[in-house]
Amino acid sequence: MADSKNPSVTQAQAEEAVRTLLRWAGEDPAREGLLDTPRRVAEAYGDWFKGYREDPREYLERTFEEVAGYDEMIVLRDIEYESHCEHHMAPIIGRVHVGYVPSGRVVGISKLARVVEAYARRFQVQEKMTAQIAHCIQSVLQPLGVGVVVEGSHECMTTRGIHKRGVSMVTSSMRGSFHDDARTRAEFLRFIEVGQARR
Asked: Do 62 and 127 meet the contact criterion of CB atoms below 8 Å apart?
C-alpha cells in the first residue's frame, strides 16, 4: 500500500490481494470495469487507515495557558467519524462527544477532533476507541476530568448477519471528576444530549 505503515507490504502485493478477493467472490479482475479496482482499493485503504501513521498525542502537545483563569468544562460535540470494525472490516459511522475540565491548560478545539480522527482511522472496536480517546486526552493534558461518549452505527450488523438498521451503539469513558462527581458527569451529558433532538 502506498505510504503504508508496514514497509514489508508493497502496493503491488496489496493490489494482488484485492484481485484474489475479487476472484474468490466470483468476479474476473481482468474485466474492464475492474481493471483499476485493486489500485483504487489500495489507495482507499491508505486513506481509511491513515491513523496508523499518526500519533494522536502529538496533537495535544501545544496548549494555551492565557485563558483568563477559565476553569469550567469545555465540550466539543458531534465530531463525525468513519471507522472500520476489526471483526468484519465493515464501516462504523457515528459521532463523538468530548468534554474536559482544564487544570490551567487548554488545547485548540480542532486538536480534539484530530485525536478522534487518528483513532477512528484504524481497525476498531467501539469500546476500545472510546477508551483510547479518553486516555490520550487525560494522559497528555492532565485535566481535572475527561468525558468521552461515542455513538456508532455498525455496518457489520446492518448489512450482514442480523440485518438490523437504525440501531446505534453508545459507549462512554469517564475519567477524573467526570467519573467521581455525579454533577460534573450530569452536566456533560446534558450538554451533549445523546440521542435527543436539540432545541
From this structure: no
- Under the phi-then-psi rule, with left for phi > 0, alpha for psi from -120 to 50, and beta for the rest, what region is 149? beta
**CA distance linking residue 41 with residue 18, whole number of Å:** 7
Catalytic status, residue 154: yes
Average pLDDT over residues 133-144: 97
Q: Cell triple for residue 195?
A: 440521542
Strand partners, 169: 152
Res 109: pLDDT: 92
Is residue 82 within 8 Å of residue 89, measured between CB atoms? no
Task: Tell me, yes or no, if 132 is annotated catalytic.
Answer: no
CA–CA distances in Å: residue 85 to residues 62, 108, 110, 192: 31, 29, 25, 25
Which one of 126, 132, 136, 138 is the catalytic residue?
Answer: 126
Catalytic residue among 124, 136, 138, 154: 154
- State how far the alpha carbon of 190 is from the alpha carbons of 75, 144, 196, in Å: 11, 19, 10
pLDDT digits (tens, 9 = 90+) for 62-114: 998 877 888 899 999 999 999 999 999 999 999 999 999 999 889 999 999 99
